[in-house]
Each structure stands twice: as C-alpha cells, then as structure tokens.
Write a structure and sequence with these properties.
By secondary structure, this protein is of the alpha+beta class. It contains 4 helices and 7 strands. The chain has one domain: 3-Layer(aba) Sandwich (Aminopeptidase).
C-alpha cells in the first residue's frame, strides 16, 4: 500500500471520483453533482494505491490556515475493515500536520462513528441529515491550539 497525493483532473482523480461514486453515492441511488465537485481544484486529494489500483480516497477542504475538513472518504468495498481506512487517515493526518493544519473536522455517517472514535475524533453538536443519511460532526486536534 502506498499513500499518494492525487492531482486534480489527473487519471488518479478520475479513479477517485469513480471510487467515491461506487462507495458513497451509488448505494443511495445518487450521483456526485457538479455543485459538489465545484471548487475541488482548490482542495487536497489523497488516496491509497496498491499497484495501479486506487483502493481508498478522501478530499481535504481547507477552511483556514489551521482548520481543514475531510470529506468524501471512501475505501473500496473489498478492502473495508482491512486497515486501509486507518492507513489513509493516519498518513493524511500526518501530511496535513506537516502543512500546518491544527484541527480536522469531518461529517461522519453514524455507522462510521466507532471507526473515527478509535482514531481520536470526538463528536460535536447534534446529529443531522445529509444526502439522506444521519451524520455527526466530528473533530480532532492534530497540533497546536484549536481554531
């Protein structure tokens, strides 16, 4: 397994879009919309590759010099519960820390709360609905003071 940064509009980015659709949208009968993809050129894209295959991906949207939001976190269905997600998150957090970010936020589907809690994320606020599913905002300090 190899942690990679994915360049916007590259072949790897296209693979990431396909994986995100397969894991996050298709099961709900939804598609990624142009609105959702708008602005992704200014965001950070990361993944885990095994050989030529992208097996996990996420998008990091900076909100300030200290705060970044992780979104569209997807692991190939055949690789879920195998440590790939943890690998992606740990390397991503280290990369973001090196870039100077101090706090990470994400909106987790309720079914994934135990995964993020094991990684040190804490639930904040009330449960809310997003793309037809209940979510929980979660945060984690990765260095320095919170924003």
């Amino acid at each position: 397994m190899k942690f990679i940064e994915i360049e916007w509009c590259s072949p790897e980015y296209q693979s990431a879009l396909e994986l995100r659709h397969e894991v996050l949208r298709a099961p709900l009968g939804l598609k990624l919309t142009a609105e959702e993809l708008d602005g992704e050129h200014g965001q950070l894209h990361f993944g885990v590759a095994e050989g030529d295959e992208l097996i996990a991906t996420l998008v990091a949207r900076p909100h300030s010099t200290n705060l970044v939001q992780l979104r569209q976190i997807a692991v190939h269905p055949n690789r879920q519960s195998s440590g790939v997600g943890r690998f992606l998150m740990e390397y991503c957090e280290a990369n973001l820390r090196e870039r100077g970010f101090q706090e990470i936020t994400l909106n987790a589907r309720l079914i994934t709360l135990p995964f993020y809690e094991k990684l040190g994320y804490e639930a904040v606020g009330d449960v809310f609905k997003e793309i037809t599913l209940e979510h929980q905002k979660m945060v984690k300090q990765i260095g320095g003071e919170s924003t």
